[in-house]
Amino acid sequence: MDKEISQAVIARLPRYFRYLGELKDSGVERISSQELSRLMHVTASQIRQDFNNFGGFGQQGYGYNVEYLYSEIGKILGLDKKHHLIIIGAGNLGQALANYMNFERRGFIFTGIFDINEKLHGKMIRGMKVRPMEEMQEFVKDNNIDIAVLTIPKESAVATAEKLVGMGIKAIWNFAHVDLDVPDSVQVENVHLSDSLIKLSYMINQYEKEHDIGEEE
Ligand code: NAI
């Protein structure tokens, strides 16, 4: 693929992938851009434009082949390969993520969980025991780990990320509220759940403005 695809299109692909996965699971074989548009609340022309970036995926008047589209978008997103991930920080968030099975459906294999707190060592979380940090280096090497999930306080996230880079990790899913300085060869995705919540507050505000709903104290 030689053409540069815009970040906006890339950002929309996971949502397409999710909807197509659900359609596929419920046995839908073909879908038109109009039907997909109704389902996803995106205009049909946006969908056609987005898919045109990747050669269209469809035939005029035939609609899209759901299975094919799902697997092609999966390939673009690198989801045709398996990723092995470890979670660092077995607190509330780390345990919640470890317990969320659905990532595995997308090829993200939860392989290990680590924490600095001795009291947690050996505790079983979804069939995995929490391991001490000292075991991490060898574990990363032996288990072909490519993604680390950081669910530790920001104070220790930078140093931990540095260590992970040294171990040859390919990507960090960073929940700690701090920017990580890593080489270009290491991919970082920062997650701030509060951003999403703040967006919700903005949406409430906008709706109330547009519908002239005043504040009631
Ligand atoms: P928690 O206190 O329940 O868990 C943190 C765990 O990290 C503890 O088990 C602790 O022993 C461990 N830990 C601390 N330093 C460590 C180190 N150097 N190496 C390995 N393990 C270490 O906290 P919680 O609620 O799970 O949150 C974890 C972090 O994620 C916090 O920094 C919090 O601010 C952040 N957070 C971020 C969210 C986001 O949307 N980005 C949402 C919720 C929490």
Structure description:
The model has no long low-confidence stretch (mean pLDDT 92). The protein has 217 residues and is an alpha/beta fold. The longest helix has 19 residues, at 7-25. It has helices at 7-25, 33-40, 44-52, 66-76, 92-98, 102-105, 136-142, 154-166, 193-210, and strands at 30-31, 58-59, 63-65, 83-88, 108-115, 124-125, 128-132, 147-150, 171-174, 187-190. The protein has a seven-stranded mixed β-sheet, with helices on both faces. The protein is globular and about 60 Å long. The chain contains nine helices and ten strands. The protein has two domains: 7-76, Arc Repressor Mutant, subunit A (Orthogonal Bundle), CATH 1.10.10.10; 83-194, Rossmann fold. α1 packs across α4 (66-76). It starts with 6 loop residues before the first helix and ends in a 7-residue tail after the last helix.
Features:
single chain, 217 residues, alpha/beta, Arc Repressor Mutant, subunit A, Rossmann fold, 2 domains, seven-stranded mixed β-sheet, three-stranded antiparallel β-sheet, 9 helices, binds 1,4-dihydronicotinamide adenine dinucleotide, repressor, DNA-binding transcription factor activity, Redox-sensing transcriptional repressor Rex, transcription
Mean pLDDT: 92
What is the total domain count?
A: 2
Number of DSSP strand runs: 10
What structural class is derived from the secondary structure elements? alpha/beta
- Percentage of residues in helical conformation: 40-55%
Total of helices: 9
Distance between the termini: 57 Å
What is the molecular shape? globular
Bound compounds, each kind once, are:
1,4-dihydronicotinamide adenine dinucleotide
**Which strand order spans the largest sheet, edge to edge or round the barrel?**
6-7-5-4-8-9-10
Strand content: 15-25%
As for the CATH topology of the largest domain, it is Rossmann fold
CATH class of the largest domain: Alpha Beta
Pfam families: CoA_binding (PF02629), Put_DNA-bind_N (PF06971)
Organism: Eisenbergiella tayi
Subcellular location: Cytoplasm
Subunit structure: Homodimer.
